[in-house]
Design goal:
Elements: H1 21-59, E1 63-65, E2 76-81, H2 86-95, H3 115-119, H4 124-127, E3 130-134, H5 141-160, H6 163-171
Antiparallel strand pairs: 1-2, 2-3
Helix pairs in contact: 1-5, 2-5
């Protein structure tokens, strides 16, 4: 990295000048506000998250909840959808107005399975079907149920295009 201005030993010679004290103070206030609202936000988000965690695998075969069922962030529901690519699922969900992610941020640029999911025992093919929903205060249980409703035909369509799914179906080894 090239220094834009000379000086600033305290900044490893990357920039001269003082720390941005107003921004640092603002960040402190933002942290205090977040802490004060944490319980209320969690109480609002957990029922929405739990609706996804409980109803999505019940509605669509071969959908696996990833992570611990209870000790998890209140705003995150993550799954592996077997026999499909998470990226394809994302495209269809996006087209339906549903935002999600496939895998973690640290693997978002890599077209490979998450090392975390593999460490949890998921094979590469299953880990490729990773889908993560991050909820916000505007999300409701109705939104979670709409996601499930929209996802069901999308997963069905993608599986009909999946050679792995077709092979498993022919072998009779699907759940």
């Amino acid at each position: 990295m090239r220094a834009e201005m000379q000086g600033g030993v305290q900044e490893r010679n990357l920039r001269a000048g003082q720390e941005n004290l107003p921004a640092i103070a603002g960040m402190g206030i933002a942290a205090e506000l977040a802490k004060a609202e944490l319980e209320a936000r969690s109480a609002a988000l957990v029922p929405v998250r739990d609706t996804l965690l409980e109803k999505l695998p019940a509605a669509i075969d071969n959908v696996i909840v990833t992570g611990h069922l209870e000790r998890r962030l209140p705003d995150v529901a993550s799954f592996c959808v077997e026999f499909i690519e998470g990226e394809a699922l994302l495209l269809f969900l996006d087209n339906a107005g549903i935002m999600a992610a496939s895998g973690s941020a640290c693997t978002s640029k890599a077209l490979k399975a998450s090392h975390v999911l593999e460490a949890l025992g998921f094979d590469a093919a299953t880990a490729q079907g990773s889908i993560v929903f991050t909820l916000g205060m505007q999300n409701t249980i109705d939104d979670a149920e709409a996601v499930i409703s929209v996802m069901k035909p999308i997963v069905s369509r993608l599986r009909e295009m999946s050679p792995l799914y077709q092979k498993r179906k022919e072998n009779g080894s699907l759940q």
